[in-house]
Amino acid sequence: MGVTGPPGPVMDRDEVDRALARLGAEHEAIETSLLALQDHAGRRLLEGAALTGVTKERWESADASITLLWAYFDAYTDVLRAAREIRSRRRWSSREDLVELTELLRGEGVTVAGSATATANAPTLQGSSSKLSEQFTLVTLVERMNELYATSLDMVVAADAVWSALPARIDLLSAELQRTRRLAHSVGVRPGEHPAGDDLERITRTLTSLREQVISDPLAFWQRAQGSSAPGGGRPDTTAYDREARALEEVRREIDAVLTVRQDAEARLVKLRDVLSRADRTLAEARTARGEVLAKIAATEVPVVSGPPTALQEQLATAAEYRRHAQWHRLSPLLESLEQKAEDELLRARESLTAVTAPLAVRAELRGRLDAYKAKVARHGLAEDPFLIERYDAARRMLWSAPCDLRVAEQAVLRYQQAAAELLSPPRVPQQSGPEDRRGESTS
Asked: Which UniProt keywords apply (predicted)?
Protein backbone atom coordinates (compact mmCIF):
# COMPACT_ATOMS: atom_id res chain seq x y z
CA MET A 1 0.00 0.00 0.00
CA GLY A 2 1.24 3.50 -0.84
CA VAL A 3 0.81 6.95 0.72
CA THR A 4 -0.60 10.04 -1.09
CA GLY A 5 1.35 13.30 -1.34
CA PRO A 6 1.19 16.07 1.27
CA PRO A 7 -1.58 18.71 1.27
CA GLY A 8 -0.81 22.17 -0.14
CA PRO A 9 -2.35 25.28 -1.75
CA VAL A 10 -4.87 25.12 -4.60
CA MET A 11 -3.61 22.62 -7.13
CA ASP A 12 -3.26 23.40 -10.80
CA ARG A 13 -4.48 21.15 -13.56
CA ASP A 14 -1.16 19.33 -13.98
CA GLU A 15 -0.90 18.66 -10.26
CA VAL A 16 -4.46 17.34 -10.21
CA ASP A 17 -3.80 15.05 -13.17
CA ARG A 18 -0.61 13.69 -11.60
CA ALA A 19 -2.33 13.17 -8.25
CA LEU A 20 -5.26 11.35 -9.89
CA ALA A 21 -2.87 9.09 -11.80
CA ARG A 22 -0.96 8.32 -8.61
CA LEU A 23 -4.17 7.73 -6.65
CA GLY A 24 -5.48 5.43 -9.39
CA ALA A 25 -2.35 3.27 -9.22
CA GLU A 26 -2.51 3.31 -5.44
CA HIS A 27 -6.18 2.34 -5.50
CA GLU A 28 -5.35 -0.61 -7.74
CA ALA A 29 -2.54 -1.77 -5.40
CA ILE A 30 -4.75 -1.47 -2.33
CA GLU A 31 -7.56 -3.39 -3.99
CA THR A 32 -5.17 -6.17 -5.04
CA SER A 33 -3.81 -6.45 -1.48
CA LEU A 34 -7.28 -6.54 0.08
CA LEU A 35 -8.52 -9.17 -2.37
CA ALA A 36 -5.42 -11.29 -1.65
CA LEU A 37 -6.11 -10.99 2.09
CA GLN A 38 -9.76 -11.85 1.53
CA ASP A 39 -8.83 -14.97 -0.44
CA HIS A 40 -5.96 -16.02 1.85
CA ALA A 41 -6.32 -19.66 2.90
CA GLY A 42 -5.49 -18.76 6.49
CA ARG A 43 -8.28 -16.16 6.64
CA ARG A 44 -10.82 -18.62 5.27
CA LEU A 45 -9.75 -21.22 7.86
CA LEU A 46 -9.96 -18.67 10.66
CA GLU A 47 -13.42 -17.61 9.53
CA GLY A 48 -14.77 -21.16 9.77
CA ALA A 49 -12.81 -22.53 12.74
CA ALA A 50 -13.99 -22.98 16.32
CA LEU A 51 -11.26 -20.86 17.87
CA THR A 52 -10.17 -20.58 21.48
CA GLY A 53 -7.65 -18.69 23.59
CA VAL A 54 -5.38 -16.02 22.16
CA THR A 55 -6.31 -16.89 18.56
CA LYS A 56 -9.99 -16.25 19.24
CA GLU A 57 -9.21 -12.86 20.79
CA ARG A 58 -6.88 -11.80 17.99
CA TRP A 59 -9.18 -13.04 15.24
CA GLU A 60 -12.09 -11.01 16.62
CA SER A 61 -9.85 -7.94 16.40
CA ALA A 62 -8.46 -8.90 12.99
CA ASP A 63 -11.94 -9.60 11.60
CA ALA A 64 -13.07 -6.18 12.76
CA SER A 65 -9.94 -4.67 11.23
CA ILE A 66 -10.63 -6.32 7.87
CA THR A 67 -14.23 -5.07 7.91
CA LEU A 68 -12.95 -1.58 8.69
CA LEU A 69 -10.37 -1.88 5.92
CA TRP A 70 -13.10 -2.43 3.34
CA ALA A 71 -15.08 0.51 4.75
CA TYR A 72 -12.00 2.71 4.42
CA PHE A 73 -11.35 1.40 0.93
CA ASP A 74 -14.94 2.10 -0.15
CA ALA A 75 -14.62 5.66 1.18
CA TYR A 76 -11.29 6.00 -0.63
CA THR A 77 -12.92 4.71 -3.84
CA ASP A 78 -15.81 7.16 -3.52
CA VAL A 79 -13.45 10.13 -3.16
CA LEU A 80 -11.38 9.02 -6.14
CA ARG A 81 -14.52 8.55 -8.25
CA ALA A 82 -15.84 11.98 -7.24
CA ALA A 83 -12.50 13.61 -8.07
CA ARG A 84 -12.43 11.95 -11.48
CA GLU A 85 -15.97 13.10 -12.22
CA ILE A 86 -15.11 16.72 -11.34
CA ARG A 87 -11.97 16.57 -13.47
CA SER A 88 -13.88 15.10 -16.40
CA ARG A 89 -16.46 17.95 -16.52
CA ARG A 90 -14.30 20.05 -18.78
CA ARG A 91 -10.97 19.82 -20.47
CA TRP A 92 -9.63 22.92 -18.73
CA SER A 93 -10.86 22.86 -15.17
CA SER A 94 -12.15 26.11 -13.69
CA ARG A 95 -10.81 27.57 -10.47
CA GLU A 96 -13.91 26.41 -8.64
CA ASP A 97 -13.26 22.87 -9.89
CA LEU A 98 -9.59 23.07 -8.81
CA VAL A 99 -10.55 24.32 -5.34
CA GLU A 100 -13.01 21.45 -4.98
CA LEU A 101 -10.43 18.95 -6.25
CA THR A 102 -7.80 20.32 -3.87
CA GLU A 103 -10.19 19.88 -0.97
CA LEU A 104 -10.94 16.30 -1.99
CA LEU A 105 -7.38 15.31 -2.72
CA ARG A 106 -5.58 17.17 0.07
CA GLY A 107 -8.16 18.18 2.62
CA GLU A 108 -10.24 16.14 5.05
CA GLY A 109 -12.63 15.23 2.28
CA VAL A 110 -13.02 11.58 3.15
CA THR A 111 -15.95 10.73 5.43
CA VAL A 112 -16.23 7.24 6.93
CA ALA A 113 -19.62 6.76 8.58
CA GLY A 114 -20.29 4.28 11.40
CA SER A 115 -16.61 3.32 11.93
CA ALA A 116 -16.44 3.90 15.68
CA THR A 117 -17.42 0.34 16.66
CA ALA A 118 -15.02 -1.25 14.22
CA THR A 119 -12.24 1.07 15.36
CA ALA A 120 -12.81 0.07 18.98
CA ASN A 121 -12.32 -3.60 18.05
CA ALA A 122 -9.18 -2.94 16.03
CA PRO A 123 -6.30 -3.08 18.58
CA THR A 124 -3.96 -0.80 16.66
CA LEU A 125 -6.60 1.91 16.44
CA GLN A 126 -7.99 1.82 19.97
CA GLY A 127 -7.97 5.27 21.44
CA SER A 128 -8.96 6.83 18.11
CA SER A 129 -12.02 8.99 17.76
CA SER A 130 -15.27 7.41 18.93
CA LYS A 131 -17.45 9.58 16.69
CA LEU A 132 -20.20 7.99 14.63
CA SER A 133 -18.32 9.21 11.53
CA GLU A 134 -14.77 10.36 10.94
CA GLN A 135 -13.12 12.78 8.54
CA PHE A 136 -9.79 11.89 6.95
CA THR A 137 -7.37 13.18 4.43
CA LEU A 138 -6.41 10.62 1.85
CA VAL A 139 -2.93 10.49 3.41
CA THR A 140 -4.32 9.68 6.86
CA LEU A 141 -6.76 7.17 5.43
CA VAL A 142 -4.03 5.27 3.61
CA GLU A 143 -1.89 5.26 6.77
CA ARG A 144 -4.82 3.77 8.67
CA MET A 145 -5.32 1.13 6.00
CA ASN A 146 -1.63 0.27 5.99
CA GLU A 147 -1.66 -0.21 9.74
CA LEU A 148 -4.81 -2.33 9.76
CA TYR A 149 -3.61 -4.40 6.81
CA ALA A 150 -0.22 -5.17 8.42
CA THR A 151 -1.69 -6.34 11.73
CA SER A 152 -4.44 -8.37 10.06
CA LEU A 153 -2.06 -10.01 7.61
CA ASP A 154 0.40 -10.78 10.43
CA MET A 155 -2.28 -12.60 12.37
CA VAL A 156 -3.57 -14.50 9.32
CA VAL A 157 -0.10 -15.53 8.11
CA ALA A 158 0.97 -16.68 11.59
CA ALA A 159 -2.14 -18.84 12.07
CA ASP A 160 -1.81 -20.29 8.57
CA ALA A 161 1.90 -21.09 9.13
CA VAL A 162 1.11 -23.03 12.32
CA TRP A 163 -1.77 -24.89 10.68
CA SER A 164 0.39 -25.72 7.67
CA ALA A 165 3.24 -27.09 9.78
CA LEU A 166 2.13 -28.65 13.04
CA PRO A 167 -1.04 -30.72 12.37
CA ALA A 168 0.63 -32.58 9.50
CA ARG A 169 3.71 -33.32 11.61
CA ILE A 170 1.52 -34.44 14.51
CA ASP A 171 -0.41 -36.75 12.17
CA LEU A 172 2.82 -38.30 10.88
CA LEU A 173 4.05 -38.79 14.44
CA SER A 174 0.69 -40.30 15.41
CA ALA A 175 0.96 -42.77 12.53
CA GLU A 176 4.45 -43.73 13.71
CA LEU A 177 3.04 -44.04 17.22
CA GLN A 178 0.38 -46.49 16.06
CA ARG A 179 2.99 -48.64 14.30
CA THR A 180 5.10 -48.60 17.44
CA ARG A 181 2.13 -49.58 19.60
CA ARG A 182 1.38 -52.58 17.38
CA LEU A 183 5.03 -53.62 17.52
CA ALA A 184 5.09 -53.14 21.29
CA HIS A 185 1.98 -55.26 21.71
CA SER A 186 3.58 -58.07 19.69
CA VAL A 187 6.45 -58.34 22.19
CA GLY A 188 4.33 -57.98 25.30
CA VAL A 189 4.96 -54.30 26.00
CA ARG A 190 1.57 -53.19 27.31
CA PRO A 191 0.30 -50.44 29.62
CA GLY A 192 0.46 -51.47 33.24
CA GLU A 193 2.96 -54.23 32.49
CA HIS A 194 5.95 -52.32 31.12
CA PRO A 195 7.05 -48.65 31.52
CA ALA A 196 7.35 -48.28 27.74
CA GLY A 197 3.69 -49.30 27.40
CA ASP A 198 2.70 -46.58 29.88
CA ASP A 199 4.82 -44.08 27.94
CA LEU A 200 3.03 -44.95 24.71
CA GLU A 201 -0.34 -44.31 26.35
CA ARG A 202 0.85 -40.95 27.67
CA ILE A 203 2.28 -39.92 24.29
CA THR A 204 -1.01 -40.89 22.61
CA ARG A 205 -3.03 -38.71 24.99
CA THR A 206 -0.58 -35.82 24.67
CA LEU A 207 -0.57 -35.86 20.85
CA THR A 208 -4.37 -35.98 20.71
CA SER A 209 -4.61 -33.00 23.06
CA LEU A 210 -1.82 -31.15 21.25
CA ARG A 211 -3.54 -31.48 17.88
CA GLU A 212 -6.80 -30.16 19.29
CA GLN A 213 -4.99 -27.17 20.79
CA VAL A 214 -3.13 -26.42 17.56
CA ILE A 215 -6.36 -26.51 15.53
CA SER A 216 -8.33 -24.29 17.92
CA ASP A 217 -5.57 -21.92 19.08
CA PRO A 218 -2.71 -21.87 16.51
CA LEU A 219 -1.28 -18.57 17.75
CA ALA A 220 -0.48 -20.20 21.09
CA PHE A 221 2.15 -22.11 19.09
CA TRP A 222 3.63 -19.14 17.24
CA GLN A 223 7.07 -17.80 18.07
CA ARG A 224 7.63 -14.30 16.78
CA ALA A 225 11.06 -13.51 15.38
CA GLN A 226 13.04 -11.09 17.51
CA GLY A 227 13.30 -7.64 15.93
CA SER A 228 11.10 -8.53 12.95
CA SER A 229 8.31 -6.13 11.97
CA ALA A 230 7.31 -7.87 8.74
CA PRO A 231 3.88 -9.55 8.73
CA GLY A 232 4.28 -13.21 9.64
CA GLY A 233 7.82 -12.77 10.94
CA GLY A 234 8.45 -15.81 13.09
CA ARG A 235 8.03 -19.58 13.10
CA PRO A 236 5.79 -22.28 14.60
CA ASP A 237 6.79 -23.25 18.15
CA THR A 238 7.41 -27.02 17.98
CA THR A 239 8.68 -27.45 21.55
CA ALA A 240 5.80 -29.68 22.70
CA TYR A 241 5.86 -31.69 19.48
CA ASP A 242 9.63 -32.19 19.64
CA ARG A 243 9.40 -33.38 23.25
CA GLU A 244 6.90 -36.10 22.35
CA ALA A 245 8.89 -37.08 19.25
CA ARG A 246 11.96 -37.63 21.44
CA ALA A 247 9.90 -39.61 23.95
CA LEU A 248 8.55 -41.84 21.17
CA GLU A 249 12.08 -42.39 19.86
CA GLU A 250 13.22 -43.50 23.31
CA VAL A 251 10.32 -45.94 23.54
CA ARG A 252 11.15 -47.24 20.08
CA ARG A 253 14.73 -47.90 21.16
CA GLU A 254 13.47 -49.86 24.18
CA ILE A 255 11.19 -51.94 21.97
CA ASP A 256 14.07 -52.54 19.54
CA ALA A 257 16.08 -53.82 22.50
CA VAL A 258 13.22 -56.19 23.37
CA LEU A 259 13.09 -57.34 19.74
CA THR A 260 16.82 -57.98 19.83
CA VAL A 261 16.31 -60.08 22.95
CA ARG A 262 13.69 -62.14 21.13
CA GLN A 263 16.14 -62.80 18.29
CA ASP A 264 19.19 -63.82 20.32
CA ALA A 265 17.73 -64.86 23.68
CA GLU A 266 18.78 -68.52 23.36
CA ALA A 267 22.39 -67.64 22.48
CA ARG A 268 22.61 -65.23 25.40
CA LEU A 269 21.18 -67.79 27.80
CA VAL A 270 23.72 -70.38 26.61
CA LYS A 271 26.53 -67.90 27.13
CA LEU A 272 25.22 -67.05 30.60
CA ARG A 273 25.17 -70.72 31.57
CA ASP A 274 28.74 -71.08 30.30
CA VAL A 275 30.00 -68.08 32.30
CA LEU A 276 28.31 -69.29 35.49
CA SER A 277 29.65 -72.81 34.88
CA ARG A 278 33.19 -71.46 34.55
CA ALA A 279 32.71 -69.49 37.76
CA ASP A 280 31.53 -72.64 39.55
CA ARG A 281 34.49 -74.66 38.25
CA THR A 282 36.89 -71.91 39.32
CA LEU A 283 35.40 -71.86 42.81
CA ALA A 284 35.64 -75.65 42.99
CA GLU A 285 39.29 -75.40 41.97
CA ALA A 286 39.81 -72.75 44.65
CA ARG A 287 38.26 -75.00 47.32
CA THR A 288 40.49 -77.90 46.27
CA ALA A 289 43.52 -75.62 46.25
CA ARG A 290 42.66 -74.36 49.72
CA GLY A 291 42.75 -77.91 51.07
CA GLU A 292 46.12 -78.41 49.41
CA VAL A 293 47.47 -75.16 50.83
CA LEU A 294 46.30 -75.98 54.34
CA ALA A 295 48.04 -79.37 54.07
CA LYS A 296 51.29 -78.08 52.58
CA ILE A 297 51.77 -74.60 54.03
CA ALA A 298 52.04 -73.85 57.74
CA ALA A 299 51.67 -70.63 59.70
CA THR A 300 49.67 -68.70 57.04
CA GLU A 301 46.14 -67.32 56.64
CA VAL A 302 44.17 -68.93 53.80
CA PRO A 303 40.87 -67.19 52.89
CA VAL A 304 37.64 -69.18 52.96
CA VAL A 305 36.12 -69.98 49.54
CA SER A 306 32.37 -69.37 49.28
CA GLY A 307 30.01 -71.65 47.43
CA PRO A 308 28.28 -70.92 44.08
CA PRO A 309 25.58 -68.20 44.28
CA THR A 310 22.18 -69.91 44.23
CA ALA A 311 20.39 -66.60 43.53
CA LEU A 312 21.99 -66.32 40.09
CA GLN A 313 20.95 -69.85 39.22
CA GLU A 314 17.40 -69.09 40.28
CA GLN A 315 17.38 -65.93 38.17
CA LEU A 316 18.76 -67.89 35.23
CA ALA A 317 15.92 -70.38 35.59
CA THR A 318 13.46 -67.46 35.67
CA ALA A 319 14.99 -66.06 32.47
CA ALA A 320 14.58 -69.41 30.74
CA GLU A 321 10.95 -69.46 31.89
CA TYR A 322 10.37 -65.99 30.43
CA ARG A 323 11.79 -67.16 27.12
CA ARG A 324 9.54 -70.24 27.01
CA HIS A 325 6.46 -68.06 27.55
CA ALA A 326 7.64 -65.31 25.13
CA GLN A 327 7.69 -62.68 27.88
CA TRP A 328 10.35 -60.67 26.06
CA HIS A 329 9.70 -57.39 27.86
CA ARG A 330 10.52 -59.12 31.18
CA LEU A 331 13.40 -61.12 29.76
CA SER A 332 15.22 -58.07 28.32
CA PRO A 333 16.12 -56.27 31.60
CA LEU A 334 16.69 -59.58 33.41
CA LEU A 335 19.23 -60.74 30.82
CA GLU A 336 21.13 -57.46 30.97
CA SER A 337 21.32 -57.69 34.76
CA LEU A 338 22.31 -61.37 34.72
CA GLU A 339 25.07 -60.84 32.16
CA GLN A 340 26.74 -58.24 34.34
CA LYS A 341 26.31 -60.32 37.51
CA ALA A 342 27.70 -63.44 35.82
CA GLU A 343 30.83 -61.59 34.69
CA ASP A 344 31.25 -60.20 38.21
CA GLU A 345 30.86 -63.70 39.66
CA LEU A 346 33.50 -65.15 37.33
CA LEU A 347 35.88 -62.34 38.26
CA ARG A 348 35.22 -62.97 41.98
CA ALA A 349 35.91 -66.70 41.55
CA ARG A 350 39.21 -66.01 39.80
CA GLU A 351 40.24 -63.55 42.49
CA SER A 352 39.36 -66.15 45.14
CA LEU A 353 41.52 -68.78 43.40
CA THR A 354 44.41 -66.33 43.17
CA ALA A 355 44.12 -65.42 46.86
CA VAL A 356 43.95 -69.08 47.96
CA THR A 357 46.93 -70.19 45.90
CA ALA A 358 49.10 -67.21 46.84
CA PRO A 359 51.10 -69.23 49.48
CA LEU A 360 51.87 -71.92 46.90
CA ALA A 361 53.04 -69.19 44.52
CA VAL A 362 55.34 -67.82 47.24
CA ARG A 363 56.74 -71.29 47.87
CA ALA A 364 57.30 -71.80 44.14
CA GLU A 365 59.11 -68.46 43.91
CA LEU A 366 61.40 -69.41 46.83
CA ARG A 367 62.15 -72.78 45.26
CA GLY A 368 63.00 -71.10 41.99
CA ARG A 369 65.26 -68.59 43.68
CA LEU A 370 67.09 -71.35 45.62
CA ASP A 371 67.70 -73.40 42.46
CA ALA A 372 68.83 -70.31 40.53
CA TYR A 373 71.53 -69.56 43.11
CA LYS A 374 72.61 -73.20 43.17
CA ALA A 375 73.10 -73.07 39.39
CA LYS A 376 75.05 -69.83 39.72
CA VAL A 377 77.31 -71.36 42.40
CA ALA A 378 77.90 -74.39 40.16
CA ARG A 379 78.95 -72.16 37.22
CA HIS A 380 81.62 -70.67 39.46
CA GLY A 381 82.94 -74.08 40.54
CA LEU A 382 81.68 -73.90 44.11
CA ALA A 383 79.10 -76.69 43.95
CA GLU A 384 81.12 -78.91 46.31
CA ASP A 385 81.64 -76.25 48.98
CA PRO A 386 80.57 -77.95 52.28
CA PHE A 387 79.23 -74.75 53.82
CA LEU A 388 77.06 -73.97 50.80
CA ILE A 389 75.85 -77.57 50.58
CA GLU A 390 74.81 -77.41 54.22
CA ARG A 391 72.91 -74.15 53.75
CA TYR A 392 71.28 -75.41 50.53
CA ASP A 393 70.12 -78.68 52.07
CA ALA A 394 68.62 -76.84 55.04
CA ALA A 395 66.64 -74.52 52.80
CA ARG A 396 65.58 -77.33 50.48
CA ARG A 397 64.29 -79.52 53.33
CA MET A 398 62.12 -76.66 54.53
CA LEU A 399 60.73 -75.88 51.05
CA TRP A 400 60.05 -79.50 50.10
CA SER A 401 58.60 -80.61 53.41
CA ALA A 402 54.95 -80.46 54.41
CA PRO A 403 53.66 -78.42 56.02
CA CYS A 404 56.10 -75.73 54.90
CA ASP A 405 56.67 -72.74 57.13
CA LEU A 406 57.14 -70.00 54.53
CA ARG A 407 58.66 -67.47 56.91
CA VAL A 408 61.33 -69.90 58.17
CA ALA A 409 61.95 -71.20 54.62
CA GLU A 410 62.43 -67.68 53.31
CA GLN A 411 65.04 -66.99 55.97
CA ALA A 412 66.87 -70.21 55.05
CA VAL A 413 66.91 -69.17 51.36
CA LEU A 414 68.25 -65.75 52.32
CA ARG A 415 71.03 -67.34 54.38
CA TYR A 416 72.03 -69.52 51.42
CA GLN A 417 72.02 -66.46 49.13
CA GLN A 418 74.19 -64.47 51.52
CA ALA A 419 76.70 -67.34 51.90
CA ALA A 420 76.88 -67.73 48.13
CA ALA A 421 77.32 -64.00 47.66
CA GLU A 422 80.22 -63.88 50.07
CA LEU A 423 82.05 -66.72 48.30
CA LEU A 424 81.37 -65.28 44.86
CA SER A 425 82.49 -61.74 45.75
CA PRO A 426 86.00 -60.73 44.54
CA PRO A 427 88.86 -60.97 47.14
CA ARG A 428 89.39 -57.84 49.18
CA VAL A 429 92.60 -55.91 48.44
CA PRO A 430 94.26 -54.28 51.51
CA GLN A 431 94.77 -50.55 51.19
CA GLN A 432 97.37 -48.29 52.76
CA SER A 433 94.76 -46.09 54.36
CA GLY A 434 91.04 -45.64 54.49
CA PRO A 435 88.22 -48.07 55.29
CA GLU A 436 88.21 -51.59 53.87
CA ASP A 437 85.92 -52.12 50.86
CA ARG A 438 83.41 -54.85 51.87
CA ARG A 439 81.12 -54.67 48.85
CA GLY A 440 80.46 -57.95 47.20
CA GLU A 441 78.78 -59.16 44.05
CA SER A 442 75.12 -58.27 43.61
CA THR A 443 72.72 -60.93 44.76
CA SER A 444 70.02 -59.98 42.32
From this structure: Coiled coil
